[in-house]
Amino acid sequence: MSHIKSAIAGTALLTAGVFMIPQAMAAQAATQGLYSADELMDAPVYLQSDPKNEAGEVENILLGDDMSVQAIVIETGDIGHDKNFVIEKGKFTVETTQDSSLEDTEYKVTVDLSEEQLNNQPEYTNDWWQDAKKQASTAWEKTKNGAESAWKNTREATSNLLDNASNAVDK
User: Fold this and answer.
1) Which alpha helices (H) appear in the chain, and where do they start and end?
2) What was the pLDDT predicted at 104?
3) pTM value?
């Protein structure tokens, strides 16, 4: 009888875990806030190493297949040259000053790089764009195939647990 309880408990935990993952992700996303891409465009950009001097402004926002922000493109001009650099997510933060209306909300982007590191970031050009699209497509295909495989494995494991529970009850 303890085998039956163990199999049923394992199935319940596995099933609950599968169904709670999307809810946990949604709860996490809700705590990160909501930002307007339109308002973020042209926002001033500062380097963490020089937070008082504007290094440029947001020129573009790059999205992945899942529509999440993958990078921003900043146009520099105040640090000696006029170039567009790709800054990957994780290397910048966005701060807002909230007001009572969307139009009064101001955005400030801080890049976690020095001027030298910024100058070593990829330049936003057609060649970069074509290469990035190929790499993103390849990564998406690998991820998609891995996710499908993980779902099949989870489904098979759940089915096996249920079969084992049923066999234990029959004995």
Assistant:
1) 2-31, 37-40, 115-119, 126-170
2) 74
3) 0.60
Among 23-37, 105-119, 138-152, where is mean pLDDT lowest?
23-37
pLDDT score for 103:
72
131-145 b/e (C-beta count within 10 Å ≥ 16 → b)? ebeeeeeeeeeeeee
Instruction: Answer with the residue of higher pLDDT: 127 or 162.
Output: 127
Any idea where the domains of the chain sit in the sequence? 2-31+144-170, 37-123
88, 70 Cβ separation under 8 angstroms: yes
Which fold would CATH assign to domain 37-123? SH3 type barrels. (2.30.30)
| β-strand pairing of 92-97 with 106-111 | antiparallel
Q: Average pLDDT for residues 23-47, to the nearest whole number?
A: 67
State the Cα–Cα distance between residues 124 and 60, nearest whole angstrom.
10
What single letter denotes the amino acid at residue 78? D
- Tokens for 119? 């100058």
Provide the 8-state DSSP code for 122. P
Residues near 131 by beta carbon (within 8 Å), at least 6 away in sequence: none
Please give the Cα distance from 32 to 43 (Å, whole number).
Answer: 19
Calpha distance 54→49 (Å, rounded): 11
Q: Find the helix or strand (DSSP H, E) in which 151 lies.
A: helix 126-170
Tokens of 137: 């497509």
